[in-house]
Amino acid sequence: MGFALILGLALLSGGRFTVLAKPAQKMAFGKTADGQDVELYTLTNKNGMHVAITNFGASVVRIQVADRQGQVEDVVLGYDALDGYVRDQAYFGAVIGRYGNRIAAGKFMLDGSTYTLARNNGENSLHGGIKGFNKAVWKAREMAAQDGPSVELTYLSKDGEEGYPGNLSVKVVYTLTERNELKIDYSATTDKKTVLNLTNHSYFNLNPGGRDILQHVLVIYADKYTPVDSGLIPTGELPSVAGTPFDFRKPTAIGARIEQDDEQLKLGHGYDHNFVLHKKGKAVELAARVVEPATGRVLEVLTSEPGVQFYTGNFLDGSARGKGGKEYQRRSAFCLETQHFPDSPNHLKFPTTELKPGEKYHSTTIYKFSTE
Length: 372
Ligand code: GLA
Known about the structure:
mainly beta; binds alpha-D-galactopyranose; Beta-galactosidase, Chain A, domain 5; nine-stranded antiparallel sheet; single chain; 36% strand; 372 residues
């Protein structure tokens, strides 16, 4: 397998036998209670950056990247072993589906039929329902991508799963490029009209030795956001961020306004809101940029999606034991979940999340690391 992959890479480079990328390294990660084997794939680039992916939930387990002194550290939350992912309630690193974020009252209409979803967040359906894509064992294979080592994960979500219509074939390809980008390509097809909103739920802390993420300096390229009600469902309005704690158009510390007396911050218990990116169309453009001043690490998020959920780990409470037994406390990490807006199936003015038979869903997000 390894040899075939190297040969493939060499052929891709036009017959010159230069190896463009080291193939992913595969190792056992454990077995699920129903006996399915789960693997861990480690992607390494020539800069010494490593990304580990498991086919349980198509989850990102580790992102190890240098700071400005060259010190390599793991900048995402997660667990050392499969067991942690099986029990996880926080969606660490996972691919979220069929629908990222909430659908109000777990109901929506499509072509005159009402669909009722599994409810797992009060009366709402969150992140795909009770058993979302984050709890599925995906099929995985290493790929000979030209721009770096890569893993392809596929999953068939059956008609009626968690209440969603249509057999949905989903593919997620993770590639680690030589430019220190973790590129995520999502694609899907269905045999019946359905709704779909895929994202990745990595929790970042660019200074993992530090206490929380409040000193990280953030830019979100968004003029508007979607305010929420008490169930964290968008009200449907798209107000300007100007003059609010949601204005991240200029570099601002995450913690600068998080405790302000603001109704939306109270409803979200901090930031837990979708931002309307000011990009147009499906081009992959910069959505957000985060700088961690102590380590100099920089994370840029680029996406083809129209929105990003900025979440400050408000529900983390130290109860889940993470890597090395670490207790992940409130606000010890942030998420930038690229997406269509929450509850879009019930907001016809939001960009549509419908997918019809014969159409191909395609979405790309890039997490790019550097230092300054
Ligand atoms: C998203 C939601 C949050 C929370 C996290 C997972 O960011 O918007 O409210 O559910 O996922 O804990």
